[in-house]
Specification:
- This protein has helices at residues 44-56, 104-110, 116-124, and strands at 7-14, 21-26, 30-32, 35-37, 58-71, 76-88, 98-102, 131-134.
- It is α/β, with parallel strands linked by helices.
- It has one domain (7-134): Nucleoside Triphosphate Pyrophosphohydrolase.
- The strands form 2 sheets. A 5-stranded mixed beta sheet has the order 4-1-6-5-8, sandwiched between helices.
- A hairpin with a 4-residue loop joins β5 (58-71) and β6.
- The longest helix has 13 residues, at 44-56.
- It is globular and about 45 Å long.
- The two termini are 25 Å apart.
- The mean pLDDT is 95.
């Protein structure tokens, strides 16, 4: 039996007090929510907090787990959380060319990679949670 080769990632939809969404502009996929791979010995929640800090400079508190998107053919499970900023300053990194908070409608227009816009919409709609989407 071969060792499974799955990728587990965690991403966060971060809303500030004005109801704006935190987005990062990555070098490959354009505008998206912060997130990335869960490291060994790290919880999903810890990964979401760490990835947000690394990619945006913003410290967050995770408010709730929203759901999972599973890319079956690529063996990727992406967990999604809702969070709120609690500190830090907007800062770019090697993974983010630009960062900022944007009004929801504007942010949804900016996010064009695959189903990332849908992921944000599902995280903002409590009636759809928790969700599990396999593709």
């Amino acid at each position: 039996m071969s060792t499974p080769k799955h990728i587990v990632s965690a991403a966060t939809i971060v809303l500030n007090e004005q109801g704006e969404i935190l987005l990062i502009k990555g070098p490959r996929r354009g505008w998206e929510m912060p997130g990335g791979q869960v490291e060994e010995g790290e919880s999903l929640k810890e990964a979401a907090i760490r990835e947000t800090k690394e990619e945006s400079g913003i410290d967050i508190e995770v408010i709730k787990f929203c759901g999972v998107y599973q890319n079956v053919s690529k063996s990727i499970c992406n967990t999604l959380f809702l969070g709120t900023p609690i500190g830090g300053e907007l800062t770019t990194s090697t993974e983010s060319l630009e960062v900022g908070f944007f009004p929801v409608e504007e942010a949804l227009e900016m996010v064009t990679w695959n189903n990332f816009r849908q992921r944000i919409e599902f995280c903002l709609n409590e009636k759809l949670q928790p969700f599990y989407v396999a593709f």
